[in-house]
Amino acid sequence: MVEERECSFCGDSIRPGRGKMYVKTNGEVYYFCSSKCQKNMLGLKRRPRDVEWAKTEK
Fold it and tell me: What number of H helices and E strands is found in the chain?
């Protein structure tokens, strides 16, 4: 059985077969529920606690 993952940026759950898995060259793995989360974390280098719509606590 495939398990649900948690988005590395916003904390939403990701159903099996959805989202993206991003692996950095150092072996670190990120899971993203949408391209919005991926762009904010990797492209714009934002932290989840600085974005209002992310579920992380301040």
Answer: 1, 4
Residue 18 is labelled as binding a ligand: no
Domain CATH for 28? 2.30.170.20
> What pLDDT, in 10s, does the model give residues 21-58?
999 999 999 999 999 999 999 999 999 999 998 887 55
With respect to residue 55, please indicate whether it lies within any of the assigned structural domains.
no
- What are the structure tokens assigned to 4, written together? 């649900």
4 is in an annotated binding site: no
Q: Is 33 annotated as contributing to ligand binding? A: yes
**pTM of the entire predicted model:** 0.86
Residue 31: which domain range? Answer: 5-48
